[in-house]
Amino acid sequence: MTEMPVFEGPIFRPGDAGYDEEVSGFQAAYAHRPDLVVGAASAEDVRLAVEYAAAAGLPVAVQATGHGLSAAADGGLLISTRGMTEVTVDPEAGMARVAAGVRAGALIEAAAAHGLAPLNGSSPSVGVVGYTLGGGFGLLARRFGYAAEHVLAIEIVTADGRLRRQEPGDELFGAVLGTGGNFGVVTALEVELFPIPQVYGGQLVFGEPLVRRAVEAWRAWTAAGVPDELTSSVTVMRFPDIPQVPEPLRGRYVASVRIAYAGPAEEGERLVAPLRAVGERVRDDLRAMPYAESHTIHSDPDFPHPYAATNALLGELTPEALEALLPLAEPCVLDIRHLGGALRERGKAEIAVDHRDAGYAVRVITLDVARQAEIRQALAPWMLGQAMTFVYGQGVADLRSGYAPETLGRLLELKAAHDPANLFRFNRNLQAGN
Questions:
Q1: Helix axes 211-224, 265-276, angle to 10 degrees
Q2: Which of 112, 306, 360, 419 has the fewest CB atoms within 10 Å, i.e. the most exposed one?
C-alpha cells in the first residue's frame, strides 16, 4: 500500500467537512467527485500529490476556479490549486509570475499598480493558468495575439513527479500551451505585461427590432477592415428574467457589440460611428476606462451556473453564413468574435493553437447538444475547425477539428512519451484515435 505523504495544505475525502466546497467550481452543471482532494498550498504539495497518485494508480484532476471543467473526475485524486495565489510583478522587466490559483482580476490589479496590463480574457474570476493553457483569447487579442504566445516560462509537475521549468525551446513548452492540462500540473507561469494603463471600450446594446441589422452592420464593419488595436465581438441572446441581470435588460432579446480598443478615445469614437448609426441603443457605455475596469466590457456573469458550448472557426463571416446561423440562435447565447490581426502570427515557441487563418469564431452556449450539432452543420460550408478553448461541457473532444494533423501527431507523441499511463486525463484528452 502506498504511503500517504505529509502535505502542507489540507486533504479531503468524501463526507469530510469542506470536501464539497473544495470540489465545487464555477461550472454548476457537474463537478469533480474524487476519492481524495489535496488542497495544494505549494508546488511541493503538487509534486507530492502527483508522485503519490502515480504510485497508487490514481488518475489526477486539477482545478483552480472550475470555469473550464471539461471532464469531471469520478474517483481518483483532485489537486485543488485555489489556495496558490501568489502574484509577483517585475515592472522593469515587464513581466509577472503567477501561481496556479491566481485569478485574472488579481493579476490585473497587481499589474495596474505599475501602469501595466496582462493579456487577460473577459472575466476577472477566471484562473490565469487555465485560461493561458487553453491559448488565451483576450480583450486585445487582435493587437497582441494569444496570451500563450507571451508566456516566458512554465513551472510544471509532470507524470514522473518532477517539478520542471520549461522555457521557449524546451521540449514541452509549446505543447503545454494550447492543450490544457494534458502534460502535468502547472504550478506557476511567468507572463509578459504591456504598458496599457487604459482602454476605450464597453457595449452597444440593441433591442429586438434592431438585432439582425446590428449583427449585419458589425459583420460588414469588421469585414471592411478595422485596426488591429481594436478587438470586438457581438453577442445575441435573450437575457434571463432574474435579479442578477440589470432591470432594463431582463427578459429582452438583444444584440450586444463589445468593443476593446487600445488607442485614443477620440479615435475609438470615430471608429464605432458606423455601429451607432444602426439606431437607438438599449445601452451605450463606450468610454475611456482604466484597464482595471476592463471586465465591464463583457460584464460576464460572476456567479456559478450550468453551461455547455461548441464553436466553429470560420474563414470569413459571409451574409449567407449569418442567414444560416441567426434563425438557430434562440434560445442559445450566440457569441461571434472577430479574429485576425496578431492572432494570425506564430511565435517561435510553436504553441499548440492552430487554424490561424480563421477570421471569426462563432461560439454557441447551450445545454442542448442537438442544437449545438445543428448549428455546426449549418456553418459547415464556412468552417475551418474548432477552438479547443471554447469547447465547454463533458464529452470527448474532436481533436482532429482542433489541431492540424502535424500538430496533433507531435502532441500525441509527446503525450505517449511523458504521460504513458494517461495520468492527466480529465481534460480535452490527447488520445490516439480521438
A1: 130
A2: 306
The pLDDT of residue 29: 87
- Is-above-0.70 flag for pTM? yes
Amino acid found at 418: H
Contact 352, 175 (CB under 8 A): yes
Residue 188 parent element (H or E): strand 185-192
- How far from chain centre, in Å, is Cα 174? 17
* pLDDT band at residue 356 under the 50/70/90 scheme: very high
Report pLDDT for 419. 97
Which grid coordinates belong to 216? 449585419
Q: Which segments within 11-130 are labelled E, that is strand?
A: 11-12, 36-39, 60-63, 77-80, 87-90, 95-99
Residues 158 and 185: their CA atoms lie apart, in Å, by 7
Beta bridge partners of 359: none
Question: Residue 170: left if φ>0, alpha if ψ -120 to 50, beta else—which one?
Answer: beta
Q: Please give the pLDDT value at position 73.
A: 92
DSSP states of 139-165 = TTHHHH--GGGGEEEEEEE-TTS-EEE
Q: Which helix (H) or strand (E) holds 401?
A: helix 399-402
Please give the Cα distance from 255 to 363 (Å, whole number).
14
Those residues with Cβ within 8 angstroms of residue 154's Cβ, 6 or more apart along the chain or in another chain:
165, 166, 167, 172, 173, 176, 177, 186, 188, 189, 190
Strand order in the sheet with 163-166: 87-90, 95-99, 185-192, 151-157, 163-166
Q: CA–CA separation, 400 vs 397, rounded Å?
A: 9
Query: Amino acid identity, residue 354?
Result: D
CA distance 321 to 145: 25
Q: Could you please report the per-residue DSSP string of 221-255?
A: HHHH---TTEEEEEEEEEPPSSTTS-GGGTT-EEE
C-alpha cell at 124: 476577472
**Residue 332 to residue 367: CA distance in whole angstroms:** 9
CB 141 within 8 A of CB 341: yes
